[in-house]
Amino acid sequence: MAPRAFRRTNPITLLLGFVIFLCFVIFLFSPSHPTTSPVLSKSATSVKSKIGRGQITHYQLNNVTTTADPEGNRERVLLLTPLARFYPEYWNNLLKLSYPHELIELGFIVPKTREGNAALAKLEAAVKKVQHGPKKNRFHGVTIMRQDFDTPTPQNEKDRHALAAQKLRRATMARARNSLLFTTIGTETSWVLWLDSDIVETPPTLIQDLARHDKAVIVPNCYQRYQNNGKPEIRPYDFNSWHDSPRALEMASKMGKDDVIFEGYKEMATYRALMAYERVDGGDPHSETPLEGVGGTALMVKAEVHRDGAMFPPFAFYNLIETEGFAKMARRLGYQPYGLPNYLVYHYNE
Amino acid sequence: MPRHSHAHSNGHAYSPSQNTFSISPHRFQPRTRPALRWRRQLIVKIAAIAFFAGVVLLLIFPSFRDLLLPTLGLGFILTDDPTLSTVRHYDLNNYLGTARGWERGERILFCVPLRDAEAHLPMFFAHMRNFTYPHHLIDLAFLVSDSKDQTLPKLKEYLTDLQNDPDDRMPFGDISLIEKDFGQKVKQDVENRHGFAAQAPRRKTMAQARNWLLSASLRPHHSWVYWRDADVETAPPTILEDLMRHNKDVIVPNVWRPLPDWLGGEQPYDLNSWQESETALALADTLDEDAVIVEGYAEYATWRPHLAYLRDPYGDPDVEMEIDGVGGVSILAKARVFRSGVHFPAFSFEKHAETEGFGKMAKRMHFSVVGLPHYTIWHLYEPSADDLKHMERMEEERKMKEAAEKAEKEKAAKLANNFENQNEQWQKDKEAVAAAAKEQETKKDKILVGGEAGPHAHAGEGEAAGAKKSHENGIVDTAGNEVKKE
């Protein structure tokens, strides 16, 4: 290297110095963005708001349809999951759904717990893999949220079903569902499919099958696979889909405003007719039954029901809470929920 | 070598005419490296350094990517990344809403339900321009439903103007115009709108509209939601900050409306902000499931303390009052209230619907619901049919009065013209009167003297009266004494 190339008076040296100086100046005066959180900085919206002026977008909600043929009408489905744990079986089942993925939007809400952190990490890895993968497998969009309130008790099977803890647990669950719902339901959403993170097996045509009935609220029967002396069998799991009974109504009328009736507890015999027990072996999977309460493990709702305001009450609404309260609220708004006793989805077996 | 035929070995240009004398010696002067070659190397080095610096800069400041890459034609790098556009991460803890949101860059969702509101738009946009909260942090959402006038095209026009304003502080964040018809069951003019029978179904449709607007436009990154009616006439431009400062979950100002003088000048407008009363709760128990209690009608006497009636024009605007029902003219709420599921019931929730039901539901979920009795905004005054009739009558009366006055004047003028000018006679009379007045003056002086004595006399009279009274007392006394003596 020739020494004269780096002589002080060399114009090129001067130019270099100037470039470095320029960088320094830019570093000093570039506006810092304390407002954008590290989480948000990844999102497209913050990028847009930083650069230009906001866009004016005109949405025609009159043209958003919810019909029995969602695929033919290119109807957008919002698939929402409150994620407590991440099961690979759940994710694989989700990927197998035959409904066009570009018409499916995913939404997840994850509690702020250690368990939630673990689930989030697994979920993010899975989502990244799919969204970078082949185009036809990519979903239209994925929103992942952290909950802004505490999840009370650790969610192990025994604690989770203790009657005393139920109200608080279900109320938290309801808030999680609402937070997820009201921030992700958009102008193009036609259907909302609630699918719990522990639903590990559904028919791949789940969305088309449920939409086919063209009901405002429709719920399949949730069962669980287990081994009975080495023999694979199935048993009912979700007892929140039911027909009301005079006994339960009488109980409710005697209860205080803030008390809640729960299904499936000896202490609280309601004598409601449960959809879980209405399954007939070899029955028509498309037979319908009107319901008064619905479970949330798998639940298909027309977007307009939620838009009208039907949400998951985190308080005692007619002595009902969460998904059961939701069914009541939908009915108050003039929508009748239905169930499919012979159409099964399967819950994870712990 | 051809080279030597063109130039000298020391680099001097070869000139075909060797006439000029040159002082430089034509001898061999060796160079370590040809100039061109070392220059080229340096250029390559500089380019490498610049490239390296650019890459480092992009790594340090991700924001440069957005500015730099599209200008270099490398925009595809941004858009091709599928995770950037389709996967979004939010931590809702960052969007809880705090008392000084404008300093922390908290985004507000500004919701405006509109129906046949074309006439109010100019006023509304004047307000929009005046907001002091940083505009780029406000996302606007409009729901236009069942409108028969030019609300939507006009709205678009105004918004385009606003977004293209040369002033960089003017344009707002993202703007959604949502069109959705619900099939209006009740006509929206003032008379119908406020009739008692029309209230329940009307408010249920309103609630539906609000819910559709909110659910379609609320995003995870919103910290606050502000509801504002288009027909607010006067409101402080700092209203967002003023309400936010209280750091409450749901907060409303007092809403009044100005009135013509003959109606008293001003009047409470929004009666939907109230505190629950025992009477109303008892009344609610007697009603059937679908009934909706509406305020301000004789049919339902609730005896609730209304925010509107508690206003003191000189009161401290920061005074807070716990309320149970809220009015919808101007509501600031934390987004987490809506995220938790609180909405505007389009059914009878605890015997209330829409904004009142919203207040009730927020309370039910243990959120704080507060009104500011002395912080007032003013709703537009639209004269009702009765008022219009009254105003017509007043106008007629005024015209009649004016006509009568005019006639009177004309008559007087006519009279004056028709009769002779009496000025001369009046002059004489005046002098006579003046003379008489002078005489009177001298007389008055005398009277004044008497007048001076007058008060004394008067005072004396008073004293005399007093004396007389005491004397009378005395008589009584003496009489009493006499009686005693006897």
TrEMBL record, chain A:
The UniProt record lists the keyword tRNA processing: no
GO molecular function, one term: alpha-1,6-mannosyltransferase activity
Subcellular location(s) of the protein: Golgi apparatus membrane
Similarity annotation: Belongs to the ANP1/MMN9/VAN1 family.
Annotated protein name in UniProt: Similar to Mannan polymerase complexes subunit MNN9 acc. no. P39107
Keyword Kinase: no
Recorded topology in the membrane: Single-pass type II membrane protein
Main location as per UniProt: Golgi
Pfam families, A to Z: Anp1
TrEMBL record, chain B:
Residue ranges, annotated region (Disordered): 1-26, 421-486
PANTHER family: MANNAN POLYMERASE II, MANNAN POLYMERASE II COMPLEX ANP1 SUBUNIT
One Pfam family from the record: Anp1
Protein's UniProt keywords contain Transmembrane: yes
Keyword Transmembrane: yes
Transmembrane stretches, start-end: 42-61
Comp. bias (Basic and acidic residues): 426-447
Keywords of the record: Golgi apparatus, Membrane, Signal-anchor, Transmembrane, Transmembrane helix
Cellular component GO terms, alphabetical: mannan polymerase complex
UniProt subcellular location: Golgi apparatus membrane
Family the UniProt entry places it in: Belongs to the ANP1/MMN9/VAN1 family.
Compositionally biased spans, kind Low complexity: 454-467
Protein name: Similar to Mannan polymerase II complex ANP1 subunit acc. no. P32629
GO biological process, one term: protein N-linked glycosylation
Sample GO molecular function, one term: alpha-1,6-mannosyltransferase activity
Organism superkingdom: Eukaryota
Membrane topology: Single-pass type II membrane protein
